[in-house]
Design brief:
With 210 residues, the chain is mainly beta. The protein is built from 2 helices and 15 strands.
C-alpha cells in the first residue's frame, strides 16, 4: 500500500514508479471509501510504473491487492479519464441564514461570493450554517452511458453538505471540493441545496469589533 499526495495548488500528472511488481494496482479513495482498478500500468525491472493524476491538495492510496493476470500496459481503459465541463451554474442564489445567530433569514446573492466580504454585519460576521438554493436546467452534452458527473464546488470554508433533488449526496470537507451527483441529476429541472458551515471564529471577530 502506498500513500500519494499532491501538496501543491496545481493539478499534477505523472508516471509514478512503485516497487511492487506482481499485483494489480487499485485506487483507494480515503474520502468516499470507493475502490477501483487502475487499468494502466507497465512493468519495469525494479517494479511498476503507473500513470497518476492528483487534483490540487488531493491524496489517495495506491494498493496492490490482487495478482495481475497480465503484466502489460492495459488498452482497456485509462486510470483517470479526462473530464469535460457540462455547464457552469451562474446567476443568483437564494441563501438562508439562522436569525438566532444574527443572520438574515433569507437573502439573494447575485453571484457566489464569500459571505465574509459582504458589508452587512449579519452576513459578514455570521458563524453557523447557511443554506444555498438554486434551480437549474441540465441537458447532457454528449455524455455517454456509465460516465460520472461531478459538482465542483471550488473552495469551501469550511464544510458543506450537498443535496440534489432531495437526495443527500454527503459532506465535502477537503480538496478536491467535488461530489458525485450522477445518481441524482435529472435531464431537466434540478433543485440544488448546499449547506455550508464555517468556524465560530468569524463571529468572535465581529463581536470584538462591535
Amino acid at each position: 500500500t502506498y500513500f500519494v499526495s499532491n501538496p501543491s495548488a496545481e493539478p499534477v500528472e505523472t508516471r509514478a514508479p512503485f516497487r511492487a511488481r506482481s499485483d494489480q494496482p487499485q485506487h483507494w479513495d480515503p474520502i468516499t471509501g470507493k475502490i477501483r482498478a487502475l487499468p494502466e500500468f507497465s512493468p519495469e525491472k525494479s517494479g511498476t510504473r503507473i500513470p497518476l493524476r492528483l487534483e490540487p491538495l488531493e491524496s489517495y492510496f495506491v494498493v496492490f491487492a490482487h495478482p495481475a493476470s497480465m503484466r502489460r500496459e492495459s488498452a482497456g481503459g485509462v486510470n483517470f479519464p479526462k473530464s469535460e465541463a457540462q455547464m457552469t451554474l451562474e446567476g443568483p442564489w437564494e441563501v438562508s441564514f439562522d436569525p438566532n445567530y444574527g443572520g438574515p433569514e433569507k437573502i439573494t446573492f447575485e453571484a457566489l461570493k464569500d459571505w465574509t466580504q459582504f458589508e452587512e454585519r449579519g452576513v459578514r460576521y455570521y458563524s453557523g450554517i447557511a443554506t444555498y438554493r438554486k434551480r437549474f436546467e441540465f441537458k447532457r452534452n454528449g455524455t455517454g452511458a456509465g460516465s460520472t458527473t461531478y459538482l465542483e464546488l471550488g473552495t469551501v470554508h469550511d464544510i458543506a453538505r450537498v443535496r440534489l433533488n432531495a437526495q443527500d449526496l454527503g459532506v465535502v470537507w477537503c480538496s478536491p471540493w467535488r461530489v458525485d451527483i450522477t445518481a441524482a441529476l435529472k435531464d431537466r429541472v434540478n433543485q440544488l441545496e448546499i449547506e455550508v458551515a464555517n468556524r465560530w471564529s468569524n463571529r468572535l471577530l465581529g463581536d470584538q469589533q462591535a
